[in-house]
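Q: What residues go here?
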């Protein structure tokens, strides 16, 4: 596998194996659509010539937002607003996916709580371990949990209508689906908490709802594989548990699993290579695996592919600092 090799995901041919991973721009309008600043950001990202572009996390519901300026796909009125963005990515020759998220208790702006009807919910009434502890979420009711698959499914349909080639479900970095996966934030005693099968249940129900509708669209999941970085003392969700989750996702028809961290966040000092290798081994040839984190040279990206850490390599912060230099990784001089 070479970084410059094309790769097919479902019916979509990516010109190379470089992925522009999602980077939230905080540039959305009050409605949750893109602004001029969003278009400028995406234009810069496209200069990387990445084969797959995963657009930043879009909230599936206003109370799944983490900040006011977050992009949203919560209503049908969003479709025409997002269409030009998806079109711009396709016209540049890249395959666009849109990331769907519910933030749960991981809100970035405490004053969201002042909005009428905003609900700060989580699997359990446990303050988010990566936050300052001042926000204590309300435990989700079984009825609220049962609404999640349809919220994600409706957002998926809107993304499809807007021209995205598929979606990536955000199940990492300690947002709601990751909060369910982790025993640190999920203390439930019903069928959505306790053993791994129960903690993964809501993610699998969401993915099942999307798989039923996916048709020709790409279905991807970004999985927070552990609550601790490679080499650190284990706590919470473990990579071994996530191998089981990854196999279940592949069995449901997920086309691409992105590997990242869960409650520990995405910034592993040495990247997530050991975890990604485990996930590759767990899913075999049943789905593709992408790994993002601390990839700063074409040589490192190529080594990851050659040593079967992953099938695709993601970059994020280099998209903000010097995106056009990434084109040199994938386009011959
Ligand atoms: C400003 C910024 C915004 C981010 N927004 C998202 C996001 O919307 N969704 C997501 O899954 N990850 C997000 N991430 C995490 C990145 O996709 C990536 O996992 C992380 O930056 C590590 O990769 P890197 O070393 O290539 O930057 C964001 C990172 C940064 C720096």
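A:
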């Amino acid at each position: 596998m070479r970084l410059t090799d094309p790769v097919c995901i479902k019916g979509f041919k990516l010109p190379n194996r470089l992925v522009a991973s999602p980077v939230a721009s905080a540039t959305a309008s009050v409605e949750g659509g893109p602004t001029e600043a969003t278009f400028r950001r995406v234009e810069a990202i496209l200069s990387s010539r990445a084969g797959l572009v995963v657009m930043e996390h879009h909230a599936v519901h206003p109370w799944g937002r983490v900040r006011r300026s977050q992009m949203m796909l919560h209503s049908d009125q969003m479709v025409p607003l997002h269409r030009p963005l998806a079109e711009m990515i396709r016209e540049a020759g890249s395959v666009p996916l849109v990331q769907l998220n519910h933030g749960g208790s991981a809100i970035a702006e405490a004053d969201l709580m002042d909005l009428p009807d905003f609900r700060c919910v989580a699997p359990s009434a446990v303050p988010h371990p990566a936050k300052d502890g001042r926000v204590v979420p309300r435990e989700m009711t079984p009825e609220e949990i049962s609404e999640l698959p349809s919220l994600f499914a409706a957002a998926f349909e809107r993304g499809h209508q807007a021209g995205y080639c598929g979606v990536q479900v955000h199940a990492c970095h300690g947002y709601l689906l990751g909060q369910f996966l982790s025993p640190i934030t999920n203390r439930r005693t019903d069928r959505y908490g306790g053993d791994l099968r129960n903690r993964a249940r809501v993610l699998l129900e969401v993915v099942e709802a999307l798989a039923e509708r996916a048709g020709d669209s790409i279905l991807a999941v970004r999985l927070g594989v552990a609550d601790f970085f490679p080499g650190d003392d284990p706590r919470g969700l473990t990579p071994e548990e996530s191998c089981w989750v990854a196999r279940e996702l592949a069995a449901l028809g997920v086309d691409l699993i992105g590997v990242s961290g869960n409650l520990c966040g995405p910034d592993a000092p040495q990247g997530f290579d050991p975890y990604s290798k485990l996930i590759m081994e767990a899913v075999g040839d049943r789905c593709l695996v992408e790994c993002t984190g601390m990839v700063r040279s074409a040589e490192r990206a190529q080594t990851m592919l050659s040593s079967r850490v992953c099938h695709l390599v993601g970059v994020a912060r280099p998209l903000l600092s010097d995106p056009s230099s990434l084109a040199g990784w994938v386009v011959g001089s």
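A: Context that may help when evaluating the design: The radius of gyration is 18 Å. The mean pLDDT is 97.
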